[in-house]
Fold each of these.
Amino acid sequence: MKIQGKVAWITGASSGIGGALATELFGRGATVILSARNSANLDELKSKLDAIEKGRCFVLPCDVTVPAQITDTAEKIKMMVPRLDILVNNAGVSQRSYAVDTSVEVDRALMEVNFFGAVGVTKAVLPWMISNGGGGIVVISSMAGKFGFRMRTAYSASKHALQGFFETLRAELHDKNIQVTLVCPGRVRTDISINSLTGEGKKYGIMDSGQQNGVPVEKCASIIIRAIENNRKEVFIGLPERFLLIVKRICPPLFYWIVNRASPT
């Protein structure tokens, strides 16, 4: 897939990986539609992109946990542009709490944003993409969707669910010219830990040292763009986490020894 001239809708575009992806896609010639709950941040990003070239960036605030907002946003997009070539399901929230200290309400909230949000957005535009001849669906999962990690029970569960749903969707759409790219980042230098939920549903508010020293978000976005261009089915980002994934496959006892002792922050 060539990025030039494509139309992309990015959820969770107000910061982090979503914002970096929007900037990278725009820089490569795509028209970008930015969605998130934080309208101020979306407008700020739009101003930066408009300063480069006007007319290729649109802002449509949307809370992916509200089905009516998803439907309304999708309908607005259909009226704004002739087609949607790339959907980036990036909206999400992480967790910093042990299972025993986490309310079921928080578990459900994480599933609503990370899993059902992505499913709802995808279903809102998938028939349109198919009728227009195809496109690409990019899902920002996590290395936590491949193995468990302390203080991430519900977050990991939601990302495992994403993996199962979208791997199956890829198989169902293999003859519809729809490519599905699952992205599994490890620690990336974003505010994800700051915005994580505690067991009581409050904002964690702390920048983890692992996050602070993670992969630069711009590098992460560049890797994802290459994956889209090359129709990669799955891409893993972050050397330590990729190492753990290999260890889990070839030497499970060593993997569990490492994970049980690794700092969750």
Amino acid sequence: MKVTSAEFIKSAYKEADWPHDNIPEIAFLGRSNVGKSSLMNSLLGVRGLARTSSTPGRTQSLNFFLINRQIRFVDLPGYGYARAPKALKAEWNEAAESYLAKREQLMLSIHLVDSRHDPSKQDLQLHEWLGHHQKPHLIVATKSDKLSKNQLRQKIDRIAGIFDTNQITTFSTLARQGHEAIWGAIEKSLKR
């Protein structure tokens, strides 16, 4: 897909604030600091649209971006490590789960995992939840440029075994690896 426009629309903390139209949406989810914002910026070819941070837990709301005036990317709060009170983290989790469960416009969830590490307990819970609720999703292993080819192959095999799937897409912002596969999955999801 050729990106001709990409703009931030809004941040939403509750369902009442979600956009109310029929534009299809692609959600990006994963643990804090897995690279959701970097992946989105790289896919769109835009620097700084989705704000990146070296501090985990910066995304605290659902952030909506309009792409080519035809689809929306939705950056969900990361789970796992974040310096925030437990009650606030629980609100983020509730908002994300409510979005995933209720949002009719959601066509595809892109579940990001760090290629350097085994999936976390929360990664497994999310994967199982998406499968149980029959939500179309794509698993993307980020930061693949940080491993040698041999290390990456071993880690992807291990991640695939843990998730019990052979459908893992590797991604690197620096090497621009995985863009075509991710856009292909997005375009396929929009035809459903």
Amino acid sequence: MSNKPYTIITSEVTVDGKLTLYKGASSKELMTLMDIEAYKYLHQIRAKVDAIMVGCETVRTDNPSLTVRYVEGKNPIRIIPCGSGNIPLDANIFSKDAETWILTTPRMSEEIKRAIESKGHKVFIFEKESLDFVEIWEFLYKQGIRSILVEGGSNVNWQLVKNHLVDEIRLIYIPVIVGGEDIPTLVGGDGFKSLSKVLHLRLRSHFVRGRQLITEWEVVKNKK
């Protein structure tokens, strides 16, 4: 798929690959352990891309701002896929700091749609019952989005991995172990369940920022 934005998944993960302390918890609690230099690294990526995406579950749980704050640079367009249309109108993503696009289905109520648009943001309705990320990526490219940073959550990451839409994965390791069987990891969903289908990566770089190890991985395109 050539007509798609260049896509980077970035996430903070514990040494055992967890995103939160428990299922339903905000990732912000673990992120308090991150060094300022790791925050700068993350925000440097934000400042270089056209758009930034998180799922609506992340919006409800973490209430992120998705803006550039630790370095100089422009704010990317905030893009939120939310098939249910269940998104809090007082969320930080509706601040005036940056433009926000909500990608949804006819399940979103007209009242919520009008309220979002009244704040100066955009709502795009896709006619399928659930959001198709291949269709979304083609749509974003047609809208002029050439690069996008995806910061989760695990189900959005699975959609990108499953559909071979991701080009890079960059991980910031928080030096703790959380444990637990039902705690979200970097990629959720059904999983590939076959070695012949797994997504192959190539390590491009690894380095330390503050106390955090950071790894940068490229997707190996000729693997299926």
Amino acid sequence: MPQPDLEAVMAEHFPRIHRAALVLSGNPWDADDLAQETFLTFAAHADQFEGRSSLYTFLYGILLNLDRRERRRSGMRRRKLRILWSSEPETPRTSAAADARAEVTEWKNSLWARVAKLPDGQRQALVLRFSEGLRYEEIAEVLDCPLGTVKSRIFHGLAGLRRVLDQEGEDACQTPAFPQEDISHAV
């Protein structure tokens, strides 16, 4: 199979990969790193893409592997976030710093911050389904697991998310309505 043009691949898929990286990592700095590293890894191993899956599911697979590796590391990311989130608001020195702080604050208060509290398998399945809009079959391909496992992870992830919202006293009606496919798979 001919090598894909890296610039064209990045132009087409970078925004989606970056968005998924932001949801997975929870902050713009790590999202930038994860997204860029995803494309660097793809560039180094583009010959492994055999075309059996779509290119974006292949890229998501790389992203999730990189995220898993990062989560196994020393926990530096958690310490950075804890320091950032617990620090008193400061006057940002630059507009970029203000934007980044606003983005972190917005994420911290979002539904995705609650999703981040779920186990990895459930979190990844929910991100791919509801942030990225992948079909169940595509999620199974990205996560390299059976379709039934994807359905189970989404079902249990939604149930876990409901428990987190209930514990926080959030109104469950504020959660987005899920597509009919998810309702039919849950019953």
